[in-house]
Amino acid sequence: MKKTTLLLISGLFATMLPAPSLDFETEARLKMALQIAREHNDESRVDRVKQAAATLQTMTTASEIEALLREVESAVGIDPGGWSMAGQPLFRPSPGILEGSPLIRKKLDAALLSGSLPEITAVITEWRAVLGDQAGLPDGRRPGDHPGPLTLDEAAATRLFVGALKSEGRAVRELTKGQPLPNQMVRFYGYVLDGLSAIHPYAQVHTPNELGMLDELARGVATVLLALQQPDGHFPFPDLRGKNIRFGEMIEKQLAAGTVEVKDGWVTTADPEGGTQFDTGVCGVALLTAGKVFNEPTWTAAGLRAADWAEKQRLVTNFNYNAFSVSLLANASQASGNQTYLDSALTKFELGVAPGQSTNGRWIDAHNARTVYHVIILRALGDLLEAVPEDRAEAITRVKAAAEPALGAILTEFNAMGITVECLPELMVLEKHFPELDGLKPAIDRVAASLVEKSSDGTGVRMGAQPHQLAAVAEWLKRN
Fold first, then answer.
1. Cα separations (Å) of 476 from 155, 387, 413?
2. pLDDT for the residue numbered 16
3. Same domain? 297 vs 356
4. Residue 73's closest CA among 40, 31, 112?
5. What's the CA angle centered on 362, arms 253 and 86, to 5 degrees?
6. Within 10 A of 408 (CB to CB), how many other CB atoms are there?
7. Model pLDDT for residues 220-247, shown as the tens digit of each residue
8. 115: nearest Cα among 459, 424, 350, 400
9. Domain shared by 275 and 258, yes or no
């Protein structure tokens, strides 16, 4: 086998594994296995890949090398030797792709900074040529759930949510007092507050005796968010060094480069690569929604401060980061009636989201093609469709033109692999705008059933899903 250096291991991968002396294909498969092991935040799986890499350096027989590679791939959930998971294709790099992509990203970054749609489109066209048939393929997938039928009714779903919350007794008590939990990303508080907002009208009807507890918890969580929000409106990131493999290393690199500051256990500087749009988008939307549900103007004002920050952020080459700001600005336009927010959301969509969509409905690069990030973009598309008034038909048509193939892509994965990601509120919003889309309603039923099964084993309940996802089950059952 020809010996060559795989360019992508020159950074992170090279710091973990011995000096490269393997052929390109072997190194690429190891890189994929390592990446998926790291996504699990599982030291044992990461160590297994590292050990295999060291062992492979000593092997000379092709059959032995292939056997060990397949063993490692199976251990992290990849189809052995097949560049797929459960038969669904994974992004397969080539020397040409790895050489061309960094330059393309630099060009795209400059085009996004210019704000010129023709320039952005030209760069994306060039990127598609570099990627070829790998455009829109994800560099990781997750095993899917195959739930049974959804048998609950609206009342039972409400009780399940309340019971799942109560199962988190200590955390609920701390949050009710307005105390943050250790090592939690701020987005977690946004998900909890969103869940409490979503379940509120159903708790009023089906669990009125628990309403006081739920409302107190909402106020406590909002208190945490208001305390953490930075003066310019963004939300910080926890200092996870030594606690999370992926994010700990990211923070170490940023500190070494002098691009961020850490204070009192938080990275208080906005991520220079745009990642702060994630937590700020989630928490800003949660505060806007909760401000309306609980009639708390100060929460709404905090959400609008987050939107003001997001509006000023430049577009970045990570499409899902841009999508978080699209969602926040779309929600801010509805909460405030200020159409400037909506115009900004549509501009960010037109320049920083839509151009990157591939012909298969996913986004062009392997990272954003992952289903979990695909759902983030779907959420932004749904939020736009909710916010754009009917008299702006051209804008609605443009958003729908992106949303329909994006929905088709996730339905294809669900049909092949089962339910691979939590996405109930996202799909529910889009179903309102695509009520006749083939297979969408049955898929939503399966997503809801998967959330229920994660949170109940027939003998007890637990918060086995994100709170805002589980809370959405009650609304879906009411609608159907």
1. 12, 20, 22
2. 47
3. yes
4. 31
5. 90
6. 16
7. 999 999 999 999 999 999 999 988 888 8
8. 350
9. no
* 265-266-272 Cα angle (round to 5): 145
Q: How many domains does the chain have?
A: 3
Q: Cβ distance 373 to 320 under 8 Å?
A: yes
For residue 317, give the CATH number of its domain: 1.50.10.10
**Closest-CA residue to 400 (of 383, 380, 385, 411):** 385
Query: Do 256 and 299 belong to one domain?
Result: no
Q: Cβ–Cβ contacts within 10 Å for residue 208, how many?
A: 9
| Vertex 267 angle, CA 113 and 279, to 5° | 65
Would you say residue 207 lies in a domain?
A: yes
DSSP structural state of residue 235:
-
The conformational region for residue 458 under phi > 0 = left, psi -120 to 50 = alpha, else beta, is: left
Strands (E), 102-252: 237-238
At a CB cut-off of 8 Å and minimum separation 6, what does 435 contact? Answer: none
Is there a single domain that holds both residue 265 and residue 275? no
Query: H or E segment at 84?
Result: strand 84-85
Within the chain, how many helices (H) and strands (E) appear? Answer: 20, 5
DSSP one-letter string for 101-115 = HHHHHHHHHHHHHHT
Residue at which a domain ends, from 47, 82, 117: 82
Distance from C-alpha of 315 to C-alpha of 115, rounded to nearest angstrom: 9
Distances (CA, A) of 59 to 31, 53, 65, 82: 18, 10, 6, 21
CA distances from 342 to 2, 307, 331, 424 (A): 54, 11, 8, 24
Q: Round the CA-based radius of gyration of the chain to a whole number and report it.
A: 23
| Whole-number pLDDT of residue 320 | 98
DSSP state, residue 458: S
- 94 located within any domain: no
Q: Is residue 274 part of a domain?
A: yes
Q: Name the pTM for this structure.
A: 0.91
58 with 21: CB under 8 angstroms?
no
- What separation in angstroms does the CA of 400 have from each of 38, 207, 409? 35, 38, 14
What type of residue sits at position 251? I
Least confident of 141-145, 147-151, 215-219, 357-361: 141-145
Residue 423: what are its φ and ψ, rounded to 5°? -155, 35
Strands 237-238 and 262-263: unpaired
Based on the domain organization, do 58 and 38 belong to the same domain? yes
CA atoms within 13 A on the CB side of 52: 27
What is the span of the domain harbouring residue 247?
239-269
Amino acid letter, 32: M
**265 is a domain residue:** yes
Q: Does 177 have pLDDT greater than 80?
A: yes
